[in-house]
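User: Can you predict the 3D structure for this chain?
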Amino acid sequence: MEFFYCPSSDQYKIMVFFLDPPDSPSMIYTLGSNNSWRSISEHIRFPRSRSASFNGALNWVCSDDSRSKKCEGICAFDIENEAVRFLILAPPQIRGIREARGLNVTLCRGSLSLFLERRKAWDGLDVWIMKEYAVVSSWTKLHAVLS
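Assistant: Here is the predicted structure, written as structure tokens:
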């Protein structure tokens, strides 16, 4: 579930993802409007992290399959147009990774970032930053914190 604000309409909204069955539509509710849920027509890939609001969109780590824990990339939900797109491939070193205990999208230094927590009892943490939004080649490993 995501709670967010749309500046262009000055409205707060709630988005809910349904993972079972896999092709279930996601739903949006606008607070203070007609008090009803509506479905998003586009398929949302399965979210694997909390979202980070950046560049007018909610961004989250996603995969193609509800049972998969692999990182396939980052999906973006355009807050104004309510459109979903598979926006960004994760860095090649992270794409398809299964060894992560946690992989989260966030903001760091004014850019979209990924925090990868390694699987075994705090083996370490990698911080990746996307220096130019939606440009895969701009991913840069910022830090590697080892235990």
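DSSP finds no helices and 13 strands in the chain. The chain has a mean pLDDT of 77.
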